[in-house]
Design brief:
Length: 236
């Protein structure tokens, strides 16, 4: 397989929602803790999130003033990936098509110091439409980036590069709904690791996969842990 093995690991309501106020309710606290414990124990080279999830969890809406940075433009007319000589080996992969995330460090600083996230080397996955000044900002911050697609993320190309350039063998896909949908439609999710809280979401909460297509998995493990269903599926 010429890409990393992908495990989609999520907490969800039992009606299939993965974002919403239900996650902060007391009735979901145990499910969230189980999710983080599993996350710490899963063996991987890092995790993948979309822009919205990364912003909500780590950047807090910060964005740099791009007028302070020189654009990165190559004479041959196409954009090139930027990889550091010294990489940590544990990565926070941000699918950020237009380059809208602002980072204050080139590694994740988790507010709780969670070893499943804290210290992960940030990698930006971008499209060709990104502002060249944003590339200058990333290079000044020593944040690696790779290109995958012109206007929309090409998931298969991104995963090819993450394995063959970065060296990732296994990655956790941890949302949100939009980026999960990219992967589901590309048929590259090898395994599902789901913690199902005993609550329902609300009408505007987002599903596990946005704009999903039909795909088939086999249930290989099911547990009841403190009233929460912990399910593991593998692709047929």
């Amino acid at each position: 397989m010429n890409r990393p093995y992908i495990i989609c690991h999520m907490t969800m309501s039992f009606d299939g929602k993965v974002t919403g106020n239900f996650l902060s309710e007391k009735s979901s606290a145990a499910a969230c803790e189980i999710y983080y414990e599993i996350n710490r124990n899963l063996k991987s080279n890092g995790f993948i999130c979309g822009r919205v999830t990364m912003e909500g969890s780590f950047t807090g809406g910060y964005y740099p003033d791009l007028s302070e940075y020189e654009p990165v433009i190559y004479d041959h007319g196409f954009k090139m990936d930027y990889i550091l000589d010294d990489m940590t080996g544990f990565y926070a992969v941000a699918f950020d098509p237009k380059g809208k995330l602002g980072w204050r460090s080139n590694k994740i600083v988790d507010p709780d110091g969670d070893p499943g996230y804290d210290g992960a080397q940030i990698i930006e996955v971008l499209t060709e439409q990104v502002d060249e000044r944003y590339l200058g900002y990333l290079e000044r911050m020593e944040i690696p980036y790779i290109f995958a697609g012109e206007t929309e993320i090409d998931v298969e190309l991104a995963l090819f590069k993450l394995k063959n350039i970065v060296g990732c063998e296994t990655l956790l896909l941890e949302g949100g709904s939009i980026v999960n949908g990219y992967f589901q439609r590309a048929d590259v999710i090898d395994e599902l690791s789901l913690v199902v809280a005993p609550v329902t979401g609300e009408k505007d909460d987002k599903p596990l996969f946005m704009d999903s297509v039909n795909s088939k998995y086999e249930l290989i493990r099911a547990e009841n842990i403190n009233g929460n269903a912990v399910l593991n599926y593998k692709k047929r």
